[in-house]
Amino acid sequence: MYLAEYYSPEEAVQCIIEKNLFGLDLDLRAVQLAQFALILKAAQYSRSVLHGKILPHIYDMPAPVHFTKEDIQSFLGVEGADYAKPLQDVLHLMLQAQNLGSIMQFDLSDEARAFIMKELRHWKQRKDLDLLQQELLNKLTPYLQVLGVLTQKYEVIAANPPYMQSKNFNASLKKYVERIYPNAKADLFAVFVEASINLVRSNGFVAEVTMQSWMFLSSFKKLRHQIVYHKSIIGLIDVGWNLFDNHSFPAAVVCFNNSDSYQKQGVYHDLTNVKVDREKLNEFWNNKNRYVVYQSDFQIIPDSPIAYWLTHSERALFSLDKIKNYGSGKKGLSTGNNDLFLRNWSEVNFDNTSIKTNNEKGYWVPLNKGGNFRKWYGNNETLIFWKDHGKQLKDFPGSVVRNEEYYFKPCITSGLVSYVDFSARSSDEGYIFEAGGTGLFVKNELYILGFLSTIIASRLLRALNPTINYNISDIENLPLVIENKETVEQIVLQSKHISKSDWDSRETSWNFKANPIVAINKGNLEQGYTHWLTYVSNNFFQLHANEEELNRNFIEIYGLQNELNPEIPLKDITILQDELDYEMLKLIQKPYEGQLVPVHADVVMQQLISYIVGCYMGRYRLDKPGLHIAHPNPAEEEQVPYFVKTGEERHYTFQIDDDAIIPLMGTNGNFTDDMLHRVKEFLSIIWGDDGLTANINFLQQQLDKNLEEYLVKDFWKYHVKTYSKKPIYWLFASKKGLSRYWCICTG
């Protein structure tokens, strides 16, 4: 640009270094490296810069030095007496220059600044300074150089600011930031963004590498509002992870103009799905990652998140009614000590739960706590100690009991945290809810649950908060249109029923009745397995069809036919999560009638064996559904043999193990109640003696392991994993090298 105006290279280099480029850093070494790099760059155009006649305006923050009133008066002289107090305030603040850095703001008029900078230049040119004056100049110069940089207005600010959450601020920094930068106080990078805005002229530019969080989190909504409503975002690169080596957070690069009228549209690049940093540059040029967005669209969305990937039509939806118009979301309690007040349901005496009794007598109560990615129904695993209406918990230091008037009411529940995607479930009455398993109490509950399970809700939620957290306020702010209500609710009811059936088919559910293959009671084990597989396959593909149909309905209701596809991958169906073979599932392009889902047959057989153990332990009975002995000190009548009818001609008396100790030694032992004998006996009871060999062979074939080997070596591992390292049976074994006697007893 200078050369185009007929400057010589030497003149151009000198002007650029003296008049155009300014830099600050806390670290002297960084300053020295920056000066060196700039001089080398300048030398490419004019080697005269190497003679050392000009130096870049790049400074480090000065160490604390105290100046007296006499020092200030001596520097300013009589003519500058009016500026003594402002300069004194400046120098006092700059005692923290190495702590506050470039975020320091000075209450200094243009006249005062001009006079101080003029005096600094004058003192540097004077030849008559005595020793004291020269010493004063040496002490003042680092301060006033930084002051000059921080009180000047610029055309462009470019920075990679420091990142630090407010919880890590020291006391002085925290106090200063809260007072001067209340809109950006959550993180130091955001403070630098606001400080940069203050340093550029109207229509000036700010370009910075930031954390992604300012684009979405509520803690930055005031800063975001300032940018979205009063600045012009020219371009933004949503880099995601791995911008630099070992980056432990997602980053973004943003450039905006310090006015609201520079341009109406910005260009946004989404590189968040590019995992390798070296590939991000190539993907930057890929148009499929490029979005052009009207900035005013962000103003429609609550809290104005920078949701650039939504279409214009999707962003416009936020002008409609919200879910919060139909009810409210509530955040639940915090115990202050989960180890003390929470249990997995299988850990407690089942007679003391409200599941078996009622809310008055059962003081262990179901708790919605979030849990894994699962739609429609489930994740019912945790109980909370609520004796005397939670008196002990309420009295516990650190506990917070919120919204108690909503406890035990039916609602829609969802997890606060999910690493996969958002999922909502129906929660029946009788539950308390925790901060991690929030409750949505609304009219049209089934309809809203259906909407929350669609691709539209997922995309809009990601716009409100694309982190792993799903706040209840974000769910409340989703736009809601109610049409085709009856159709939607029928689909939702069926989907909930399928998911509930799946959840309750495992013994880790407190509503478990019996192993489904045993309950089917077909001619032999293979037939029972085949019948079960057909049944769950039909349910799986029906649920998949239901979720796509809901997508189709809501895409039409919201007018997004040209923008969204209702299809969803099979892997996102959240039933059969333990049994599915997900690698084989990927090979199914389009399900056909009669299609069977690929499952890990060994897992299904392990579930069957676990049920068999439970029956001999008395935890379950073959003549009654559900739990039998799930409490200590069972009564004598609970342990007596009982009559079993399995088939037209088979009648047996089933014997619960008399001492609740079952050896696991196989053929190495000589116990009639060894688990190997028990499993064979059970297969004979259910499917008859004639087919025992075939049933054992089928069982071993699906296990892909000898039955004895599985029972002796692997059953205990399976049991511990199933109950999340909180087993309901306990294993006792002799030390290695000695005779081995393995047994299981009730916990």
List descriptors:
747 residues, six-stranded mixed β-sheet, alpha+beta, Rossmann fold, 38% helix, 21 strands, 26 helices, four-stranded antiparallel β-sheet
Give structural notes.
- The protein is of the alpha+beta class and 747 residues long.
- The protein has 5 domains: 3-60, no CATH class; 69-152, no CATH class; 157-309, 3-Layer(aba) Sandwich (Rossmann fold), CATH 3.40.50; 323-483, Adenine-n6-DNA-methyltransferase TaqI, Chain A, domain 2, CATH 3.90.220; 601-746, no CATH class.
- The protein has 26 helices and 21 strands.
- The strands form 6 sheets. The protein has a 6-stranded mixed beta sheet with strand order 3-4-6-5-7-8. It has a 4-stranded antiparallel beta sheet with strand order 9-16-13-14. A 4-stranded mixed beta sheet has the order 10-12-11-15.
- Helix 19 packs antiparallel against helix 21 (525-557).
- The longest helix is centred in the last third of the chain and has 33 residues, at 525-557.
- It is elongated, with a radius of gyration of 35 Å.
- The N and C termini lie far apart (82 Å).
